[in-house]
Amino acid sequence: MGVQKKTRKFAQVDILVLIDSGSRVNLGQVKRIIGQRDARLKKNQAKGELESKRKAKGNEVVREIPQVSSSLFFQYNTALVPPYSVLVDTNFLSHTVQHKLELLETMMDCLYAKCIPIITDCVMAELEKLGQKYRIALRIARDERWERLKCDHKGVYADDCLVDRVMKHKVYIVATNDRDLKRRIRKIPGVPIMSVARGKYVIERLPDAPEK
Prior knowledge:
The structure is a single chain. By secondary structure, this protein is α/β, with parallel strands linked by helices. Helix content is 33%, strand content 22%. It contains seven helices and eight strands. Helix 2 (90-98) packs across helix 5 (135-141) and helix 4 (121-130) runs antiparallel to helix 5 (135-141). The radius of gyration is 34 Å and the shape is elongated.
């Protein structure tokens, strides 16, 4: 068996010359080398088809996103077991009042389990400082059914208090609609975030655990 020689592909081009009378005279055919990027080559045709398919796929509009069970985060934090302890933020109570939601019942509808809303001293102090505008949220926070947590830190900034608690003890779900607080909580692994959206409570699923 002989080795097949690689041959370069050529395109034949007719050279036409106009003479003084206006008629054209063919001087013959010459060969011109085809470039490696020429669209007529098979390998370039295959690449062009792949690129066109990729562009078409990228332009597709996603009509429906598959729903994932919110219970998936429990397998990544075994300390989270019913009844769930939910640290409630000032912002969360405000959104609850705006959407006219029942705190405990809506929490249970979200998690399908018994929940214990927890109000810290600094959240209560924030609500008291905000005045008449938040009087309904303050009334909800004072409900005797909720658990109260004493704060031993200075100041009444609730965000720092909640972040400090979940870093020390990852047994809580944090209920808040505050963007800055959400961003800080997301950096702590194993802590779910509950928020008010679309007239109900929703809970963020934690990112998938790394494979061991």
